[in-house]
Amino acid sequence: xxxxxxxxxxxxxxxxxxxxxxxxxxxxxxxxxxxxxxxxxxxxxxxxxxxxxxxxxxxxxxxxxxxxxxxxxxxxxxxxxxxxxxxxxxxxxxxxxxxxxxxxxxxxxxxxxxxxxxxxxxxxxxxxxxxxxxxxxxxxxxxxxxxxxxxxxxxxxxxxxxxxxxxxxxxxxxxxxxxxxxxxxxxxxxxxxxxxxxxxxxxxxxxxxxxxxxxxxxxxxxxxxxxxxxxxxxxxxxxxxxxxxxxxxxxxxxxxxxxxxxxxxxxxxxxxxxxxxxxxxxxxxxxxxxxxxxxxxxxxxxxxxxxxxxxxxxxxxxxxxxxxxxxxxxxxxxxxxxxxxxxxxxxxxxxxxxxxxxxxxxxxxxxxxxxxxxxxxxxxxxxxxxxxxxxxxxxxxxxxxxxxxxxxxxxxxxxxxxxxxxxxxxxxxxxxxxxxxxxxxxxxxxxxxxxxxxxxxxxxxxxxxxxxxxxxxxxxxxxxxxxxxxxxxxxxxxxxxxxxxxxxxxxxxxxxxxxxxxxxxxxxxxxxxxxxxxxxxxxxxxxxxxxxxxxxxxxxxxxxxxxxxxxxxxxxxxxxxxxxxxxxxxxxxxxxxxxxxxxxxxxxxxxxxxxxxxxxxxxxxxxxxxxxxxxxxxxxxxxxxxxxxxxxxxxxxxxxxxxxxxxxxxxxxxxxxxxxxxxxxxxxxxxxxxxxxxxxxxxxxxxxxxxxxxxxxxxxxxxxxxxxxxxxxxxxxxxxxxxxxxxxxxxxxxxxxxxxxxxxxxxxxxxxxxxxxxxxxxxxxxxxxxxxxxxxxxxxxxxxxxxxxxxxxxxxxxxxxxxxxxxxxxxxxx
Amino acid sequence: xxxxxxxxxxxxxxxxxxxxxxxxxxxxxxxxxxxxxxxxxxxxxxxxxxxxxxxxxxxxxxxxxxxxxxxxxxxxxxxxxxxxxxxxxxxxxxxxxxxxxxxxxxxxxxxxxxxxxxxxxxxxxxxxxxxxxxxxxxxxxxxxxxxxxxxxxxxxxxxxxxxxxxxxxxxxxxxxxxxxxxxxxxxxxxxxxxxxxxxxxxxxxxxxxxxxxxxxxxxxxxxxxxxxxxxxxxxxxxxxxxxxxxxxxxxxxxxxxxxxxxxxxxxxxxxxxxxxxxxxxxxxxxxxxxxxxxxxxxxxxxxxxxxxxxxxxxxxxxxxxxxxxxxxxxxxxxxxxxxxxxxxxxxxxxxxxxxxxxxxxxxxxxxxxxxxxxxxxxxxxxxxxxxxxxxxxxxxxxxxxxxxxxxxxxxxxxxxxxxxxxxxxxxxxxxxxxxxxxxxxxxxxx
Lengths: 830, 446
Fold this sequence. Notes:
The complex is a heterodimer of chains A (830) and B (446). Chain A is α/β, with parallel strands linked by helices and 830 residues long. Chain A has five domains: 2-97, Ubiquitin-like (UB roll); 146-290, Alpha-Beta Plaits (2-Layer Sandwich); 299-363 and 559-706, Rossmann fold; 377-428 and 442-552, Dimethylsulfoxide Reductase, domain 2, CATH 3.40.228.10; 729-826, Barwin-like endoglucanases. In chain A, the strands form eight sheets. In chain A, strands 16-15-26-25-24-17-18 form a seven-stranded mixed beta sheet. In chain A, strands 35-30-34-31-33-32-36 form a seven-stranded mixed beta sheet. In chain A, a hairpin with a 2-residue loop joins strand 1 (2-5) and strand 2 (8-11). In chain A, helix 7 (311-323) crosses helix 19 (662-673), helix 8 runs parallel beside helix 19 and helix 12 (463-482) packs parallel to helix 16. Chain B is an alpha/beta fold and 446 residues long. Chain B contains 17 helices and nine strands. Chain B has helices spanning 36-41, 46-53, 56-66, 78-83, 108-115, 117-131, 145-160, 191-198, 227-239, 241-245, 278-285, 310-313, 319-324, 343-357, 363-381, 387-400, 408-433; strands at 94-99, 135-140, 176-181, 222-226, 255-262, 268-273, 293-297, 306-307, 333-338. Chain B has a five-stranded mixed beta sheet with strand order 6-5-9-7-8, with helices on one face. In chain B, strands 3-2-1-4 form a four-stranded parallel beta sheet, with helices on both faces. In chain B, strand 2, helix 7 and strand 3 (176-181) form a beta-alpha-beta unit. The longest helix of chain B is centred in the last third of the chain and has 26 residues, at 408-433. Chain B is globular, with a radius of gyration of 22 Å. The two termini of chain B are 43 Å apart.
């Protein structure tokens, strides 16, 4: 559509909002209530402009012409229009510069400031405040309001992690709309009316795993991240745009650091991945990085005690210790959230030592690389038939939000010259959601099930049986179509169905129908399926049978990347097993297997135990050499997210002494050994990766680049022999909050509560357990300190425990007889 | 409005015209007239039977031909509004009766619902048939408890006799009603806020478009009409479009209700033909002003006031004439303001009402109408004002006009603006002297 913004002629798509047309033309209008990816509502009335349009003569259908000029006559709307809620029309004329518009904007700034405190010098938002900027640009500079401003609560803890200053709120409704529109958790609303309106919650806190995003979108200093309140001024922060290593979503982050410490984490913008949202575990879970007990220097065991030494000395000890061990008896394992560059370094180290015992952990029994038709997050957001096996909210939180995008049925907007549309008029408040396109399968009630039209609860570990049954049914139905009596054959296909898999035959048939009818079906699965190679094989076959793309959620941020570049044992027999008696020396990156007393006992007997870690733990306590590690916020490198997108990881300026990433370990080792190893630096590792992946990771754009799936032949060569699925009555479940850091994240701990042992209330009753009680119970050998949380969403006989890097998702043995209660210790259960 | 009577000479524009007879209000105030038996006895539901025998489109055309315009204040042609409904798709569609009569000065709907509830139910049945909706919603103002009870009883009676429910009146048409009480918010009279409130949401107005006909109650096609509009439909069907159009003026046809309050001898609700002059309403029907009057509000407090002079008293009660005079016919709630009433105090009463009723959704209304404007009036009335404050009110009100999300801010701003235009001397006197030109005795609305 051809329109004019001031003097600029513009051709815009029908349906575009006038505010986006104004920005596309290079002009500015102020706004507070509109927000990228959310519905425009026209509440703040700040984006007023004069708008006019030509009209057609009803009788003739011709444009009414201006007699003086002969052009189409412009009929101006009688009132100034809110440009965010006005659609462009053919021939529209927009005026944002005239005196009338200026007057309307001045007036609106004045109204907005009537009740807004002028406390910018002490406000955390000062310097980064939309209202402050707009008041300078569009206000008159003085106030005619001489009365007392509204007095309301100044430090209201909306939750443990978010503080609300009700006086600063300008009622733009971004936060209220956000909860309904984005995560679909309606936990916040306006209360009272007129001048008394304030936001509040009727629940205790903000029970949503995505609550922190409201601190990013608040245009003023009303909603603040409690981890960073009063910690610094906005212009003092050093901003680092990076990628989250918290889960395999690959969400963009902005880390704000000051004087060597991370003060807060905000969401970054990646239109293809997280848009502008991140989960609370990622946002508030950074306090551990600044914890006082960080390991900042290498340490060597002398006379049974770890003594700080220089890197060079530590590495001489490492070299000498490993020198006495048969190279093939050395194990090297790094955590699955290590960068690709660290992966290359680990490979170089293992090659140098001559061992095939290289691995990343946790690594599920089945591959986390999708087959021929990988689904991107955009595919998920535009899918019309989703089968989800697992708990994406906790496995890769952004996937949860992109699934919810698909339920709205509004495909992602095209980017405009100024970026994401400010007011996408296709989005509205309280849109109807197409829940019928979503099926969620999990052995307990997950958060995402609230949004699903169909939910299936197989027995724990029963995903394989369910998937095989579905696959058999899909094949039988295909064959039935060719039969002489298709109806009878289809019924026959259903006849052998066993409801024990978790769903009825009719539901299974309806699910297959829905997937078959979908134009762009997507199958998503996570750790429960990957823990069982048979389930994984059935899931892949089912995806092929119904023509669905696949998205696999790996256990940690870069599990897919490390598998892709081959940080793997040379033989499955050499897979990471800390309890193995064949290994004489271990080099471990960020892993803590000695939490398991059996492993600890084995480790006491090793020839060498070298641990690269950020914090002291059960394994460092046994180590011969401890090397200081950086956290995921301090690494330079790259990661591959679940959809196969290479994303840049950048180091925030955090004071961490002599800590390095794993490339630093390899560099120091090489120096001690007199070898220049590949992967001795990020640059060196990238040279290797450029050859292998044909991508220059140093040149990776901020929003990353999709890596084409590995050729089938290469995958075949790397095909891993099947491992048996584990059994047990404890189901280790994914956790959006990283439990291993929780004790050092005070804000997150208060907000989330401690790690929980969830069970059906009747099981709790049978074992005399009460809600909030703190217990220690061995799970798969590791004694876990957990808070009892009875939950009727857990099937009887199953006990849910959140995952640790050393305790992957899936079934584990649970020793309830060894359960120990901590007298008098109780904790809040979130 | 083709097919309607066009000969204006013959139109009934006075209540003294012997051809005029009270119709909608014929049984208001009559003991026992609210029961179904009484209603049936006087020919009740005959119009519905007749309408149900017609094609829906024919009913819409009939209402279009009658020239009936919305009686809730905005005056949108009812038949045209009905014709906006999309063709049926087999799913729900709604006809909603806006019975949240909250405009200060208006009370016509209340008596219609209390004393003749079946008339409204019949009107809704006809409207429901015309727009092919099977569900009707009556959203009653929360304070109208008696009206609510009467409507509830009437609905029960109608259901028991097969007038509401499946196969109404022995036809194959289904129609039933939901009666919903408001919780005391003026904003719910705004049609989209009403729908939100009915759905159990916060009563904020919705964005338009989509208009209710596209996406209304629960996102389904919906038509919203005022009580009087729906009651009028009964008589349009019963007596014909020509009968209805024979009353009033070219612009505004049919029957309306003058609800006179303020300083008059005989305040009350009077059914009148449109086109009647305000002089006839105030002097003849309401017994004239008690003492000298200086202004009158023609249609509820959101309508700017008019000077109480010959030129304005002789204006006809019609949409166009009021628009030309810089005000609105609104709901027909006429308020007469006596000479010795301080206009600043009177306007403060109006402003205070809108300040209390602002929903808080948009900035100008929440901060201007609900916060700043009443504070300015309080300052003036406390004797603390300055002449600059009067200028500030004038300037602020300019910023309020036409900038808010819904018309509530205009409803507060426009009367203030007009009062400044007509009685600026009183504002300035108060600002200079600290005491009003006409010291308050009792607040006129109290």
